[in-house]
Amino acid sequence: MQFRLEKRQEPSRFMLYATPVAAVVLTMVLGAIIFSLIGFDGLGAVREIFLTPLINPLKWQDLAVKASPLIIIAVGLSIGYRANVWNIGAEGQYIVGGLAGTGVALATWEMTGWWLLPLMIIAGIAGGMAYAAVPALLRVKFKVNEILTTLMLTYVSVQLLNYLVLGPWINPTGYGQAQTRLFNADQTLPYIIPGTIVQLGTPIALLVALVAWVLMSKSMFGFQIRVVGLAPHAARYGGFSEGKTIWLALLVGGGLAGLAGVLEVAGPFGRMVPSFPTNYGFTAIIVAFLGRLNPLGIVVAGIVLAITFVGGQVAQTTIGLPFPAVGLFQAMMLFLLLAGDILVRYRLRRVVPLAVAEDVA
Amino acid sequence: MSMLSRRNILKIGGAAAALPLLGRGAYAQEPLKVGFVLIGTPDDNGWNHGHDMGRQAMEDALGDKVTSTVVTNVAEGPDSERVFRELAQQGHKLIFGTSFGFGDYMLKVAKEFPDVKFEWATGNATAPNLSTYNAKFHEGRAVLGTIAGMMTETNKLAYIGSIPIPEVRMGINSFAIAARKVNPDVSIKVVYIDSWFDPAKEADATRALIDQGVDIFASHMDGPVSLQIAEERGIIGGFGQGADMSAFAPKAQLTSIIDVWGPHYIEAAQQVLDGTWVESSTWPGLKEGEVVIGPYNEKIPADVVAAAEKVRMGIIDGSLHPFAGPIMDNAGTERVAEGDIIDDGEFWAVDWYAAGVEA
Amino acid sequence: MVDTCDPTAETSRTMAEKMIGTGLKDIVRGEGRQMGNAKFVVSNLSTRKLGHFDVAVEGVSFSVRAGEILGIAGVAGNGQNALLDALSGEVEAHAATAIVLDGQPLGQLGTTARRKHGLCAVPEERNGHAAVGDFSLAENTILTARDRMSMVVMGLINSGAARTYTGKVITEFAVKALGPASLAGSLSGGNLQKYIMGREILQRPSVLVVSQPTWGVDAGAAAAIHQALVDLAAEGSAIVVISQDLDELLVLCDTMAVINSGRLSASKPVGTVTVDEIGLLMGGVHGDKTAEGAHAVPA
User: Fold this and answer.
1) A178 CB within 8 Å of a chain B CB
2) Has residue C288 got a pLDDT over 80?
3) What is the ipTM of this complex?
4) Which domains does chain C have, with CATH numbers?
5) Are C106 and C120 in contact (CB under 8 A)?
């Protein structure tokens, strides 16, 4: 039996939404086989990684905590990717956003008031935007590829973080350890569900996704982003400036990464530490694509990725699955998703060998 | 010392609070579940390896009475909070967090699970059900400094630092003070990697330092990278950190500082089994056998071994203190006067480097 | 098979009629049309070269009266695209007064502002320039008709208005498409061209500049497009048609000029110009300073 790939007249809408689901399912199947072959409890691994976090209500709060920053960052990235602006340095914008919020918190640590948290959040967004403005300027003015600049600036931000946390911002009562003071109560995100660890960051993430969905599908902002990404020439004809769109895309992406950063430092972290960069900025790239660059899809994708993280830790503690296995599952999922993309634009046709066809005739 | 001793008083209160829980031990036939949370993996042959060896020693010693779970590659931060909660939810009654950055989250989770005992390695705060434990690695560094100071031919030593926190800084100072005591001409170049584990960066730094004429290394990283490069480049050598790394650098490893956590883990688990565990802060060193100097490489001359042993025995019998005055800092100011020492309480406030350190 | 014939005995028109299966309609012009005053005046319009192989326009001047169709002939690659970009607003002119519509200087406005003033344009390349293949027809309508046809309220898209207008374009220009939700890329070249022309013409622009309006379109559709252009002119719009198809220009236009190496000849009424003259102009022999004065076409 032979198969041939045939270009579809129109991209298949069914495949567009079916392939991510298929990628997740196939990851589970292949994962179970691979881990069984190398001597682990393969089925158990799949059960612990993919099902336990969903079935066990104790884990739901962990999913919310882990998915929220991923969703916020991925929504911002997806807007850029739609415009063909390849910001892969969200990690750096996330760090700078967190640092900006920390700066406000440290400057006001003796103060109280409801306004502290909003001020920190605004600073975080502004910090992320400012950090994304550098690649935007370089791209628009000097045609410097933003893939390189955003990535390299991530490393710069890590150095900045280490410098601040070990130097000017070090906790004066922390035995010289590399960390800032703990933020005060008014500088920390409130818990929204009593008795859980779910903080204000989670509803903010859902709100961000919803607003982005409305903007991308119903507003001229989204239209402009999409047309510049799909057909720059047509965008110019339609009256949309490519330069302005690049600015917009990077500022929105940077601003949202910065928002995630400040929510993370004022939430689960509670202070700035050198281990603040947790690869959310990079994982969000997988989330953005798994969610089909659609803000609502990204909410689902963010939860799926959170499941693999949370479930990965469950599998480590219950069946002793090694930590790199989690990375393997995630990588397999992205690979299968990208490979499955071909089915959106092509269909698989069975080719009947000519000789057989003649026999039948 | 003041800070820590004040906390030690608290443990009496903690013990009283734990009393009602003792009844449980009577019918607890199930083994004690002990959790270990590691920042890296046991195969780093350093810090994490040391803790895993300690865990195995605990299992060997206590047999059926304990089972253990190891969670590896846990990032310092909110991810660790989830791991500690997960372990507590699964019924682990004693949980060790083996990195400083786990502390905030252990303190949070400890509040939620008052009947679970937590132990925070290298920590600096305790709670009724959370103790800290640490080891005086800097005592071992005085032995290494003595060897390095006597064996260097270029008088250029280097110290690969991880993150510039007091513990690392004091390790450097102990090494430098000991080296200058036997060889006043040596300088100690310090390079920080800003991470506990980053083999690529560590390798680059090591190569650059060798090119500058450094012939002996000390390191505060999790892993044997600088030693492997020393072996490859054929310089005099370096020291194993946290574990014996001679398998990676048979010629270059002069000796090693070995962390022996086993006795502490056995003791803590036994206390939980007996219901006698109380909030505490422990900080033993060479004397208690928690810090051990590994075998000396045969290429070390006998007089150097003798000098190193003299330092080791001196620290053990208390006749020698690694931070005994007079100590000058590298800017020429006298920091510790003749006849004085840096005690365990002052240790954490030191923000300067001893004479000879180039940081 | 509809018919067999001897090609030498047929005209191109009869051949075309056989191919599309119906008789070709003649362009119907209102008799005794009155040309108004100069409506669209372009003077000394120049653009910068964008790339090494680009042809820029240099010192282009012409004027079109209300109701007039000006044809611009020329061999491909002589600056037609640059001229269209300069007129549509994709490339700004050096001076605002280089392009004037009803007394309003538009030279330094972008495409959106020019459209609001009534200047619409259709570039030669349909897919990726005049339309986005991965967008639905309704979305492609928003691309150029959003302001004139009120499809955007406070930054939000009124998709109902976009669908209604797109439906009107599909019906009036007989676009073969399943509906406003069809992807532009799924339409045949001719149908997409009908859609694009319809999208601009039904906005009733004061000035319409089109490049290659019937390129790759079957003869029946071409006739329909021609008729729509003539009707638009009859309503008082000024129209500029840039085309490499001389027959099309001769049938459609009132006046003609020729573009060569980015320069435009003076325009002349179609009745007074011969094909030979146009041929010479297209070959580069025109009134510029480097050419021999003897061959210059009298204005």
Assistant:
1) yes
2) no
3) 0.84
4) 33-127+205-295 (3.40.50.300)
5) no
Domain count, chain B: 2
Same domain? B155 vs B240 = yes
CA-nearest residue of chain C to A231?
C128
Share of chain A above pLDDT 90, in %: 60
Q: Do A223 and C129 touch (CB under 8 A)?
A: no
String of DSSP letters for B157-171: EEEEESS-SHHHHHH
Span C32-64, pLDDT tens digits? 566 778 899 999 998 877 666 677 888 999 999
Residues spanned by the domain of B110: 2-136+260-282
pLDDT over 90, % of chain C:
55
Q: Are B46 and B221 in contact (CB under 8 A)?
A: yes
Tell me the per-residue pLDDT of C1-20, one tens digit each, with 9 for 90 and over: 656 777 676 666 566 566 65
Question: Whole-angstrom Cα distance, residue B359 to residue C21?
Answer: 90
For residue B6, pLDDT over 50 is answered with no
- The string of pLDDT tens digits covering residues B51-73 is 999 999 999 999 999 999 999 88
CB contacts of C110 in chain A (<8 Å) are: 239, 241
Query: Distance from A136 to chain B by nearest Cα, in Å?
Result: 29
- Put simply, the answer to whether A176 touches B348 (Cβ < 8 Å) is yes
Which is more confident, B216 or A342?
B216
Which string of b and e fits B312-337 if b means at least 16 CB within 10 Å? Answer: bebbeeeebebbeeebbbbeeeebbe
B254: Cβ–Cβ under 8 A, 6 or more apart, which residues?
B144, B147, B148, B151, B216, B236, B237, B238, B239, B296, B297, B299, B300
Residues B208, B300 within the same domain: yes
Amino acid C50: pLDDT? 66
- pLDDT in the model for residue A360: 46
The residue in chain A having the minimum alpha-carbon distance to the alpha carbon of residue C131 is: A234
Burial of B340 (0-12, 13-18, 19+ CB in 10 A): middle
The model's confidence at residue B243, banded by pLDDT at 50, 70 and 90, is confident
Same domain, B269 and B350: no
- Give the best residue of A84, A237, A245, A344 to mutate against chain C (max C CB count within 10 A): A237
Q: What is the pLDDT of residue A222?
A: 95
Of A308-322, B10-24, B149-163, C242-256, the poorest mean pLDDT is in: B10-24
Specify whether B217 is located in the same domain as B313: yes
Q: How far is C154 from chain A (nearest CA, A)?
A: 9
Q: Are residues B201 and B345 in the same domain?
A: yes
Q: Which residue of A has its CA nearest to B80?
A: A313
SS3 labels along C203-242: CCCCEEEEECCCCCCCHHHHHHHHHHHHHHHHCCCEEEEE
Q: What is the C-alpha separation between C128 and C109, in angstroms, rounded?
A: 22
The CA distance from C29 to A208, in Å, is 57
Cβ-based neighbours of B285, under 8 Å, separated by 6 or more? B135, B136, B137, B139, B140, B291, B315
A220 CA: distance to closest CA in chain C (Å): 5
Chains touching chain C, criterion 3+ CB pairs below 8 Å? A
Chain C residues with CB-CB distance to A223 below 8 A: 139, 142, 157
Specify the pLDDT at position C290.
Answer: 43
Q: What residues of chain A, 204 to 233, have a C-beta less than 8 Å from chain C?
A: 218-221, 223, 226-227, 230-231, 233
Q: Are residues B201 and B331 in the same domain?
A: yes
Nearest by CB to A273, which of B69, B76, B83? B76
CATH number at residue B341: 3.40.50.2300
Nearest Cα residue in chain A from B122: A177
Q: Residue A38: what pLDDT?
A: 82
> Comparing C-alpha atoms, which of C32, C42, C28, C47 is closest to residue C238?
C42
In order, the DSSP letters of B197-221 are --HHHHHHHHHHHHHTT--EEEE-S
